[in-house]
């Protein structure tokens, strides 16, 4: 496979407070392993079959991200700087539009920078299976078998039993209260959304145009008017700040 990883590097730092906070997010902390979570993520998606990764982050973390890439020997990474945090959808779209300028059919893998994944070989094998579907225009989202009810996670209901291969998505459930989550957990048909997706740049852009069209124009303008600043690429502030970011609650219509 020939895939470009986009590492999403942001957040409010509230999940593991006070060890994690806005000025020192958990992806830059030493947790459960001997490298930082950001470094582990960068290394996980490097080597054979992977091109130089991208990172999407805010202005306050741009030097940190670049430094962490350098520490693990990744010197050709691209860092896209968002003028303001606007949640995941515009960050995903901006990176897809950025990559589409060179190759609209390039394969992209989006991943948070703060996951702990002990079995890298098994993970890469799962990604390889997803790539086969993504190559045909599908948007692949990884899922996790829930270990407990979790109000801070979104849940995905599959249309059939997962056997390690791609299964069509039936229903997407945003974060909910404890009672609703307990009912979902009891049903046994819902899995955690891992927040890791594989698709072509073209597939994502077309999906946004169809299901979240209000996002396309301002983000496209922000990417088109990107300015080079030292070793970073700054998305244009005016269109980025003006648009109203929304959650992708209809993601189930174009994920499979």
Keyword list:
256 residues, alpha/beta, 8 helices, globular, disordered C terminus
Give a verbal description of the structure.
The chain is α/β, with parallel strands linked by helices and about 260 residues long. The chain has helices at about 35-45, 60-70, 90-100, 120-135, 180-185, 200-210, 215-225, 235-240, and strands at about 5-10, 55-60, 80, 105-110, 140-145, 155-160, 170-175, 190-200, 225-230, 230-235. Strands 1, 2, 3, 4, 5, 6, 7, 8, 9 and 10 form a 10-stranded mixed β-sheet that branches. β1, α1 (about 35-45) and β2 (about 55-60) form a beta-alpha-beta unit. The longest helix has 15 residues, at about 120-135. It is globular and about 50 Å long.
Give a brief outline of the structure.
With 256 residues, this protein is an alpha/beta fold.
Question: What order do the helices and strands follow?
Answer: EHEHEHEHEEEHEHHEEH
Q: Give the oligomeric state of the chains in this entry, treating copies of one chain as homo and distinct chains as hetero.
A: single chain
Mean pLDDT: 82
Structural class category: alpha/beta
Q: With helices defined by DSSP (H or I, 4 residues minimum), what is the helix count? A: 8
Which parts are unreliable, with pLDDT below 50 for 5 consecutive residues or more?
12-17, 246-256
Choose one word for the global shape.
globular
User: Into which percent range does the helicity of residues fall?
Assistant: 25-40%
The first-to-last residue Cα distance is: 20 Å
**Biggest sheet layout:** 10 strands, mixed
Number of strands: 10
Radius of gyration: 18 Å
The proportion of residues in beta strands is 15-25%
């Amino acid at each position: 496979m020939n895939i470009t990883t986009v590492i999403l590097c942001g957040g409010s730092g509230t999940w593991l407070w006070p060890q994690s906070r806005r000025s020192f997010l958990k992806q830059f902390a030493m947790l459960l392993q001997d490298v930082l979570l950001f470094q582990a993520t960068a290394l996980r998606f490097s080597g054979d079959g992977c091109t130089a990764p991208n990172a999407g982050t805010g202005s306050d973390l741009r030097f940190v991200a670049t430094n962490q890439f350098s520490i693990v020997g990744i010197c050709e990474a691209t860092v896209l700087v968002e003028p303001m945090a606007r949640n995941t959808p515009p960050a995903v779209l901006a990176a897809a539009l950025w990559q589409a300028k060179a190759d609209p059919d390039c394969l992209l893998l989006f991943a948070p920078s703060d996951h702990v994944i002990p079995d890298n070989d098994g993970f890469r094998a799962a990604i390889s299976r997803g790539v086969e579907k993504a190559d045909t225009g599908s948007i692949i989202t990884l899922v996790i078998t829930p270990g407990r009810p979790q109000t801070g996670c979104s849940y995905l209901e599959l249309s059939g039993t997962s056997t390690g291969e791609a299964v069509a998505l039936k229903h997407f459930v945003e974060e909910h209260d404890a009672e609703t989550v307990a009912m979902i957990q009891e049903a046994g048909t819902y899995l955690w959304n891992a927040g890791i997706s594989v698709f072509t740049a073209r597939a994502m852009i077309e999906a946004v145009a169809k299901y979240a069209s209000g996002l396309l124009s301002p983000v496209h303008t922000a990417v088109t008017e990107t300015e080079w600043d030292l070793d970073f690429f700054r998305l244009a502030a005016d269109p980025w700040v003006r648009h109203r970011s929304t959650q992708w609650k209809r993601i189930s219509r174009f994920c499979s």
